[in-house]
Amino acid sequence: MAASRVAFIGMGRMGLPMAKNLVQKGFDVACFDSTAARREIAAGEGLKVASSAPAAAAGASTVVTALPAGKEVQEVLAGILFDAVDSETLFVDCSTISPGTSRELEAAARDKGLAMVDAPMSGGVPGARAGTLTFMVGAGDGDFERAAVVLGAMGRPKKVGGPGSGSAAKLCNNLMMAIQMVAVSEGFTLAKALGLDHRDLFAVASTSTSQCWSMTSYAPVPDVVPTSPANRNFEAGFSGSLMHKDLRLALDAAAANDATLPVGTRVADLYADMINADGGDADFSAIITHLHRLSRS
Length: 297
Description:
The chain contains 13 helices and nine strands. The relative contact order is 0.09. The strands form two sheets. A six-stranded parallel beta sheet has the order 3-2-1-4-5-6, with helices on both faces. Strands 7-8-9 form a three-stranded mixed beta sheet. It is an alpha/beta fold. The longest helix has 29 residues, at about 165-195. Strand 4 (about 60-65), helix 4 (about 70-75) and strand 5 (about 90-95) form a beta-alpha-beta unit.
């Protein structure tokens, strides 16, 4: 087993650039995706593509997964790979799934003599491309240090607690981010109704008490922040459908643990309405267009 050999399962919009960064940092990476088109794209980008998930994991010291949802993570890990690797293999799951599912998988890995950490990320496609993702890591003793070697090639790993804590932190983070984005979008919607130019509002709000990431790094209006999807017709760095999925995970976790999230519940409803009206492919910051539509109705 080579210490620098990494298997990467999931060649989506996040996984592909993450795997490319690992290769650029000197890791020997074998990739796999269940979708043939994504395998072809990965191969076209110069990545080594295996014929199956077990083939990608063969001889790897670390297996990284970046998959759409908990169902896929369970199918790939508990259903396939936990029985197909050496006992020294470390699993690093970067998917956004429920904390409960993360803990169940990590317990199943331990039962088979394997190690696993949950390490969901924040930073979207731009962060994946630039290698500047923030990884929120839930890990047992000694496992974080092993995972940090690989995660550090793709961004900044931060341990937030034991197994499942990374997934918990990700849900909290995205809940707050969604609420911030809706609040910022409402502010700009009101500005438009009052005849205030969005550039003038940004000039004061970005340095005032309403300042937040959704304002200063991702403002949902054009020509004020270079990194804003509003400059590119809301091409998704993180889609509305993915945001809604994460909000539902947060609300389910809250219900299971007797926490009440009235604002988060309303924000999730707004994203569901946006998806029903426009589909979920646009960036989550396109919620502002839905608010504009509601203002005209």
